[in-house]
Design brief:
Chain lengths: 407, 230
């Protein structure tokens, strides 16, 4: 007896009891749909995250000093200048420095405004997803000469200047812990987010004001002892070499070669780690959902056992007509595999619809992989076989006389 | 054709031994039309199961169509059943979800006959029993007598050497019983060996030989003297 015959017999039997077949595979449908939807939405989310950050971070290197670094081992503004000049693959470089200050303007005082010290405002803005909407960036001269200039965010401008955004040319006083400085505002920036949704979201709760790092030093001299840098390499391919050069040069300049005071990490590596954790979580949730499949499989086994009992006479007759034990085994096995495969296909469709819907609500793109689709089909067949074997063997082993006598 | 020597069948039921067949020897030649009769518990059904290779036995020898079928594996006896024996049951045992044509073709499925030839031969067999116009019906759409005719078509479709019918008219009224017996007689006239279990003496009168069982033994074996023909 060929496969086609078993297939036809199985389909006939499945469609003879449509409702029962459907209820039987409901567990499989739900399980597969859940797994597919979770994987598709999860992978879509990961792709989205990776995509968003890799635009920005694909060529970004984070340089940091170890906690044990002494003051003399910390990175200086001179180091930054030297690195930029000696390593041609460095596209942009800027320290990460923030200082809490108290800002005031036109007699208006506002506690706590976070001042960011930078040696490359364009780069800093880019990293913070901000754009200049009025005025200009700092010039190189302004940075080296510690000019008293600042770029302020639009919402901070509004709160200091009675709701005005274009405050280029205005003055502001900043009081730091170790000193104070009066700066002239030369630019106003706005985050892309704020540009999109308007001023509903105060995206800078503490305010945002950017100063040349040299100027920031007059608020707090400590800021010149830099502990972290952001570096943008010329291209992705330069990342590894550039990282090494930076670490080596810093170690040489501070006379601590081979002591691991300086480390450079690539943003993508960090992202990879985040993605790995996310994948793990998603796969775990999917595995939990797969428990539904186990329950579904038991349902299939149950109904197959009922079916074997119901069809005892049929089995007896088939045996009398010349069916071997294997013919019978194969017939019932085929039936349970087809049942589970149908469940798998319906589940796949349902899961895809579910994934697209959920992804639509979350504003991401659901991502289906060929691997997961093949896995679903293989897995449903495996359920069909593993939960179908017992009933099928029971059918195959029936004594033909007993089976023919069965009422 | 059918040669049984000293066949013994013992049933074990809750520690007790029940000897269903006590050294039964039997010879049925090609072309015979034999009834097996006897009260229930006489061993006639056991005899039928052994003849049909549905059951094993505990002693003796069985040759069918020149082949020793005494000790066959499950698979071997399935193949012999498929090729050499045609079964007709009291309650027809048709597959309810299959068309009559597919029902008749079923033994050929297990015999590995290609679909096209299956169709052709099934149709021929249905013609022989007068149901060629009902090929695409399902069993629940036809009468009991017609069902049994389909079952007979199914039994002969693989051209077996012997047709084994177990109370084939047990579920039929007297008119349809005659129809069925007529078909058996026609098949027998055409050379098919038929063995039939029945408990109705009237029906047995349509066969050529009556073997009577009692307590696991043959107590009588006679040709039918005033045989009825249809």
């Amino acid at each position: 007896m060929g496969f086609l015959e078993s297939f036809k017999i199985a389909l006939a039997s499945i469609f003879a009891n449509k409702m029962r077949s459907f209820l039987t595979i409901l567990g499989i449908i739900i399980g597969i749909a859940a797994v597919i939807a979770i994987l598709a939405v999860g992978n879509g989310a990961i792709t989205q995250i990776t995509g968003t950050f890799s635009d920005l971070g694909s060529s970004t290197i984070s340089v940091s000093t170890s906690r044990d670094a002494t003051d003399t081992q910390k990175i200086t503004i001179k180091d930054i200048k030297a690195l930029k000049e000696s390593i041609p693959t460095i596209n942009r470089i800027s320290p990460n420095v923030t200082i809490q200050t108290v800002g005031s303007s036109e007699g208006k005082t506002k506690t706590t405004i976070v001042a960011t010290g930078t040696s490359d405002l364009q780069y800093t803005n880019q990293m913070m997803d901000k754009e200049i909407i009025y005025g200009r960036y700092f010039t190189t001269t302004e940075i080296t000469e510690a000019s008293k200039v600042a770029v302020i965010s639009a919402d901070t401008a509004r709160s200091f200047f009675n709701g005005r955004e274009n405050v280029v040319g205005e003055k502001m006083n900043l009081h730091g812990q170790k000193g104070q400085v009066s700066v002239r505002i030369i630019g106003v920036s706005k985050s892309t987010l704020e540009k999109m949704v308007g001023s509903f979201i105060e995206d800078e709760m503490m305010g945002y004001i950017a100063l040349p790092i040299t100027t920031a030093a007059s608020l707090d001299p400590e800021v010149t002892k830099i502990t972290s840098l952001n570096v943008m390499a010329r291209s992705k391919d330069d990342i590894d070499a550039t990282s090494k050069q930076i670490v080596n040069q810093l170690a040489t300049r501070h006379n601590v070669p081979g002591k691991n005071i300086y480390t450079a990490t690539n943003f993508l590596q960090a992202l990879d780690q985040v993605n790995n954790v996310l994948s793990l979580i998603i796969n775990f949730i999917a595995a939990v959902a797969a428990i539904a499949l186990l329950v579904g499989g038991i349902g299939v086994m149950n109904i197959m056992l009922v079916s074997v009992t119901e069809r005892t006479r049929e089995i007896g007759t088939r045996k009398a007509l010349g069916a071997t034990n294997n013919n019978i085994l194969f017939q019932f096995l085929t039936e349970s595999v087809i049942l589970c495969l149908i469940g798998g296909l319906i589940g796949l469709t349902l899961g895809a619809v579910l994934a697209v819907t959920v992804a639509g609500v979350l504003d991401i793109t659901a991502k289906f992989t060929l691997g997961s689709i093949i896995a679903v089909l293989v897995f449903s067949s495996a359920i069909g076989i593993s939960f179908g074997v017992y009933p099928a063997r029971k059918a195959a082993k029936l004594d033909p006389i007993e089976a023919l006598r069965y009422e | 054709m059918i040669d049984l020597k000293e066949v013994v069948k013992i049933y074990q039921t809750s520690g007790e031994e029940l000897i269903a067949l006590k050294h039964v020897s039997l010879h049925i030649a090609k072309g015979e039309f034999t009834s097996i009769m006897g009260p229930s518990g006489s061993g006639k059904s056991t005899m039928m199961n052994i003849l049909g290779l549905l059951d094993r036995f505990d002693g003796g020898m069985y040759h069918l169509n020149g082949q020793d079928v005494t000790n066959l594996t499950d698979n071997e006896s399935a193949h012999v059943r498929n090729r050499e024996i045609g079964f007709v049951f009291q309650s027809f045992n048709l597959m309810p979800r299959m068309t009559l044509l597919d029902n008749v073709g079923l033994p050929m499925v297990y015999g590995g006959v290609p679909l096209k030839e299956r169709r052709k031969r099934a149709l021929e067999a249905l013609k022989k029993v007068g149901l060629a116009d009902r090929v695409s019906h399902r069993p629940n759409a036809i009468s009991g007598g017609q069902k049994q005719r389909v079952a007979i078509a199914r039994a002969i479709v693989n051209r077996p050497v012997v047709l084994m019918a177990d109370e084939p008219t047990g579920n039929l009224d007297s008119k349809t019983t005659l129809e069925i017996m007529k078909i058996f007689q026609e098949l027998n006239d055409a050379g098919t060996t038929v063995v039939m279990v029945t408990h109705e003496p009237d029906v047995a009168q349509y066969t050529k030989r009556i073997i009577s069982f009692r307590d696991g033994q043959i107590i009588d074996d006679q040709p039918v003297s005033d045989r009825r023909t249809l």
